[in-house]
Amino acid sequence: MNKEKLRQYYLRFCRWQQARPHYVNRHQDTVLHCHNCGTQFAGNFCPLCGQRAEIGRVGWNSIKDNIAILWGLDSRSFLYTLVQLIGRPDYLVRDYISGHRQVSFPPIKMLVIVCLFVVAFEWVFNLRNDVLGIQFNIPKVDEIVEWINSQKSWATLLLQSFYILPTWLVFRFAPSYPHHTLPEGFFLQVFLSVQSLLLSFIGYWDPNAELFVWIAYMYITYHQLFGYGWWGTLWRLAVIRVPCINDEVASCRDNRLLVRGS
Q1: Are 193 and 151 in contact (CB under 8 A)?
Q2: Distance (Å, rounded) from C-alpha 129 to C-alpha 203?
Q3: Between the CA atoms of 200, 206, 207 and 209, what dihedral angle is there, to the nearest 10 degrees?
Q4: What is the rounded distance in angstroms from the CA atom of residue 108 to the CA atom of residue 114?
Q5: N or C: which end of the chain has fewer CB within 10 A?
């Protein structure tokens, strides 16, 4: 494959990353009758009660939809958001906190579902990749560490939450995203927590590779989200993340022993 072909693929990938959310009105030329409130409308949803245009009599699709609602997968695509989080994490976060929320799966709910999947995967294949892989050899402290590892989703979010304030302090005058708030920083860390759980699958194969990919994803996310240059992003990320990276190195070393021991 020649360089020009690679360049074309790269430019296409960049355009996909920077694309803004768009919506398709499948019923814009059709007058519909809402089965819930009786309102006549043209669109995907009833403007009065919010019911979807496709909802009618109960059928086989109703069973599928109700099962999807049970897991919160009814309105916004779970898999679509995961693909976006891996392929364009920075733009996904920016879209969400800027108000484009209907195209993304709710991040906290996504964190819980991904965690359940990770825990089930570990149970089925008898694997282990702890959030905290460090042993202190102090019974009470090790019991707390074990409890934290048993609550993988909330433990991941809790550890990420420690970086909300440092991120706000270091990146508060960012060129492309100035004056961001602490609540917005919270949702940034929620998305990063989901990302961390997804990357943990690499850790079952090679914990060092997981650490490398995790650092690369953090760097790219912060660089493109806040708009600082490569070096400007690097030193700011080092200020708030070096202690975490040191802990991850120790955790990777211990988790490698756990995986091999299993």
Answers
A1: no
A2: 7
A3: -90
A4: 10
A5: N
* Helix (H) or strand (E) run with residue 33 in it: strand 32-33
Residues 6+ positions from 106 with CB-CB distance below 8 Å = 72, 76
| pLDDT on residue 141 | 72
Half-sphere exposure of 255 (CA within 13 A, CB side): 27
Handedness of CA 25, 27, 31, 36 (dihedral sign): negative
Please list, in sequence order, all residues whose beta carbon lies within 8 angstroms of the beta carbon of residue 84, skipping any fewer than 6 positions away.
91, 92, 104
Residue type (1 letter), 104: S
DSSP state of 137: S
- What are 123-150's pLDDT values in tens digits? 888 776 666 666 667 777 777 777 777 7
240 and 170 in contact (C-beta within 8 Å)? yes
Contact 65, 58 (CB under 8 A): no
Cα separation, 241 vs 189, whole angstroms: 13
Tokens of 147: 């409890």
The model's pLDDT over 233-250, given as tens digits with 9 standing for 90+, comes to: 988 888 887 655 545 544
- Cβ-based neighbours of 167, under 8 Å, separated by 6 or more: 185, 188, 189, 240
* Cβ-contact 197, 152 below 8 angstroms: yes
Place of tokens 């690499």: 202
